[in-house]
């Protein structure tokens, strides 16, 4: 299961409304950073037939099959601190992260 806080869901809904199109957001991982893996987000206009679809707070979240094993149980939040803002990920599969927080290990 993949979930979003109300703040994260509202951010995605607002962005989709401003775009004027889109079915939801795709969350995945890619190899990057000093710890090995990084989160990748993209808005989805047409879902891939292989994606797993979750619904959280009226937002569709799409996960590709390769990323699902690393993201099962993920909670997404959206935080704003001073000039910094962005998604925060709480992942029960994560074993560590790099010092800057840009990448993680499982």
TrEMBL record:
Named cofactor requirement(s): Fe cation
Annotated InterPro entries: ATAP (IPR016092), ATAP_core_dom (IPR000361), Fe-S_cluster_asmbl/transfer (IPR050322), FeS_cluster_insertion_CS (IPR017870), HesB-like_dom_sf (IPR035903), IscA_proteobact (IPR011302)
Claim: Metal-binding is one of the keywords in the record: yes
rRNA processing is among the record's keywords: no
Domain Core: 2-102
SUPFAM superfamilies hit by this protein: HesB-like domain
Gene3D superfamilies on file: HesB-like domain
Keywords: Iron, Metal-binding
PANTHER family in alphabetical order: IRON-SULFUR CLUSTER ASSEMBLY 1 HOMOLOG, MITOCHONDRIAL, IRON-SULFUR CLUSTER ASSEMBLY PROTEIN
Family: Belongs to the HesB/IscA family.
NCBIfam families on file: iron-sulfur cluster assembly accessory protein, IscA
Name of the protein in its database record: Iron-binding protein IscA
Naturally occurring in which organism (per UniProt): Psychrobacter glaciei
């Amino acid at each position: 299961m993949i979930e979003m806080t109300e703040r994260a869901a509202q951010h995605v809904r607002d962005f989709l409304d401003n775009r004027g199109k889109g079915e939801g957001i795709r969350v995945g991982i890619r190899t990057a950073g000093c710890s090995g893996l990084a989160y990748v987000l993209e808005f989805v206009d047409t879902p891939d037939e292989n994606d797993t679809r979750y619904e959280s707070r009226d937002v569709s979240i799409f996960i590709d099959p390769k990323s699902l094993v690393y993201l099962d149980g993920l909670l997404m939040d959206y935080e704003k601190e001073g000039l910094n803002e962005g998604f925060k990920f709480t992942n029960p599969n994560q074993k560590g992260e790099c010092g800057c927080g840009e990448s993680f290990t499982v």
